[in-house]
Amino acid sequence: MEQTDERILEFLDDVGWATPHIMACERGFEATEGRIRDRCERLVYAGFIAPLHRKTYEITQWGRLYLQGEIDAEHQPTPTKERALR
After folding, report:
1. pLDDT of 34
2. Domain membership flag for residue 82
3. What pTM value is reported for the model?
4. DSSP assignment string, 9-48
5. In a domain, 84, yes or no
6. Which among 63, 22, 65 is positioned nearest to 45, based on CA atoms?
């Protein structure tokens, strides 16, 4: 998990859903749209967020539990390099 990942989770928890473009335009994100998109794909793989439609994401129950300190990201699946770059 990176600081950007936590910011994505916090933002989605606050607003309900968003695209990487919307997040990149918000204050508090110090990452490009491409970087946010990459991190979103990894968060989907870990089960912390879910795609709603195309490039729109929402936080999952697992993501909320992570924010509450109830689960550790270390125990979530991590994509292989090939899987993450698809």
Report:
1. 95
2. no
3. 0.85
4. HHHHHHHS-B-HHHHHHSTT--S-HHHHHHHHHHHHHHTS
5. no
6. 63
Number of domains in the chain: 1
- CATH code for the domain of 49: 1.10.10.10
* Sequence-ordered list of residues with C-beta below 8 angstroms from that of 80, at least 6 positions apart, any chain: none
Give the pLDDT score at 79: 60
Residue range of the domain that includes 55: 3-74
Mean pLDDT per block of 10 residues along the chain (86 residues) reads 93 96 91 95 93 94 94 68 54
Specify the pLDDT at position 51. Answer: 96
> Is there a domain that residue 55 lies in?
yes
The answer for residues whose C-beta is within 8 angstroms of residue 61's C-beta and 6 or more apart is none
